[in-house]
């Protein structure tokens, strides 16, 4: 126990003596959390800029334009009768609605006119929301116009509604019912940043010993590879839990991210995630003896991991070889579990697959690191 405490104390001292690592480890998650939080503080997409090419200039086209502008998602920022007026400002609109000449007359005489919607596909999120808003408005007006037409033919209003609307559609959302984009993004980004800074710190654990030829100091304290492993790992595990605690207690509530009711499940999931990162980082730090190269190697793993984790794009839609790579990244399973805890308010029993996967990563990389430490301790004589 004395040897373990001595190595833990030594590791804490090395960590806090590195000002750059200290600033990145604690500063980056808080900085990025605040940055992302304020970036998506509006939470849902609204007031998307659209343009209307109104070649009809009729009461019905004016009604359509007013209805589009009143929709939650939309803001009609330009109305014109000529396409040429939009050419210069085309990128600034998320969608363009074209109302053809003679539109109202064609509606009245049932000639089935077409309204064309052109969606800006450069940003799929804003384009999709604009498309949803426009189609909702036009669908409502379309139904209303048909009902009015039937009324003019002498059909009673209730009968007209039944003829047009065979069944009603009630649309609602569950799990993030308000389409809060902040609730969607912030936990995932924080998990990714946590992984990145954690691996950055762990890249220095053994590469520092190799570069400075100080491994003899560890072997003088103990020859037990398990104690060396735990002595190097525990400080990062403690610091990681402390850092996530700060995020969970201060940052997430500040931006109104709901706290899971099952706090124990969240703590266990976070602990296993940090354990898997610790074992993976220590293995790479041992294999790559240069601090710079170890950092670069771990950044290659962590930088694309948010994209490859399946958080924003389903794993099932990725090629098999990318899925295989994703399944080796602890972040993949942590974000799956975190989404379940925050959105689904699930129990620990529903996280068995994610926890087991992270424990397998921990076991494989941890055992490999222990073997390497054992070989090193046997090979290197004790320095007196």
What does this structure look like?
The protein is mainly alpha-helical. Helices cover 65% and strands 6% of the residues. The chain is built from 16 helices and four strands. The chain has a four-stranded mixed sheet with strand order 2-1-3-4, covered by helices on one side. It starts with a helix and ends in a 5-residue tail after the last helix. The mean pLDDT is 80. Its main location: membrane. Keywords: Cell membrane, Membrane, Transmembrane, Transmembrane helix, Transport. Belongs to the ABC-2 integral membrane protein family. It is a multi-pass membrane protein.
Which descriptors would you attach to this protein?
ABC transporter permease, 65% helix, 384 residues, ABC2_TM_bact-type, membrane, mainly alpha, 4 strands, elongated, four-stranded mixed beta sheet, transport, 16 helices
User: Strand count, sense and closure of the main sheet?
Assistant: 4 strands, mixed
Q: How would you describe the oligomerization state of the chains in this entry?
A: single chain
Helix/strand/pairing category: mainly alpha
Query: Helical element count?
Result: 16
Q: What radius of gyration results from the CA coordinates?
A: 29 Å
State which percent range the strand residues make up.
5-15%
Order of helices and strands: HHEHEEHEHHHHHHHHHHHH
Uncertain spans: none
So what's the overall shape? elongated
Distance between the termini: 22 Å
Mean pLDDT: 80
Strand order of the largest sheet: 2-1-3-4
According to DSSP, the number of beta strands is 4
Helix proportion:
55-70%
